[in-house]
Hints:
This protein is an alpha/beta fold. The chain has one domain (5-215): LmbE-like (Rossmann fold), CATH 3.40.50. 45% of the residues lie in helices and 18% in strands. It has helices at residues 14-28, 58-73, 93-107, 123-137, 156-160, 173-182, 184-196, 198-206; strands at 5-9, 33-39, 77-83, 111-115, 146-150, 165-168, 210-215. A seven-stranded mixed beta sheet has the order 3-2-1-4-5-7-6, sandwiched between helices. Helix 2 (58-73) links the parallel strand 2 and strand 3. Helix 1 (14-28) packs across helix 6 (173-182). It starts with a strand and ends with a strand. One of its GO terms (molecular function) is hydrolase activity, acting on carbon-nitrogen (but not peptide) bonds, in linear amides. Pfam families: PIG-L. InterPro entries: BshB2, GlcNAc_PI_deacetylase-related, LmbE-like_dom_sf. It comes from Alicyclobacillus macrosporangiidus.
Amino acid sequence: MERHVLVVYPHPDDETFASGGTIALHTRAGTPVTYLCGTLGQMGRNMGKPFFANRETLPDVREKELRAACAALGIQDLRLLGLRDKTVEFEDPEALADRILAVMKEVRPSLLITYYPGFAVHPDHNALGAAAIRAVEKLPADERPVVHCSAFSRDCREKLGDPDVIIDITSVRDVKMAAIRAHRSQSEAMLARMERDPAFRAVREATLRQEVYWTYRV
């Protein structure tokens, strides 16, 4: 059992799609989880299917969805960094790392979950993952949490090898699905495609059975 888990991702729904099952297993075991969410995903393209949000309302919609997903997953400590979606790579990396470091010093996590820099496709993913790891590097060696990184670029297994952490999440599948449905603006199109496309459904169903991570050696 971990002492405290800190999750650092840039967008509402990253916590669910990348690590919803893992988070649910931790909260079910009684481990406190803090989610440090970088942005409100205000530049996202998905507006629901059919549309129910627009560019002006999307930040509020996504924040409400995020809070509902966190409730489903058992996350009681949600913190918003207030960064601008699709611009995280332009933030001062040291200043951003220091903001994350302040939270680390407060909650003293034994485990950090974030994106693997350079292997998470989206520039926001890579930039915030790098800042989170930089924050860990600023801690004394005996205070550093273990770092588990999500990665899904096409070359991640070629360059990183196979993931060294594989977590069976079948026991909390329904919890992850509830969190996915909570992110309605982002998930409705995906769920509709799962209904009509067996090959796509098989790919998505795999993410409801296990979540994988690479341990980042800091």
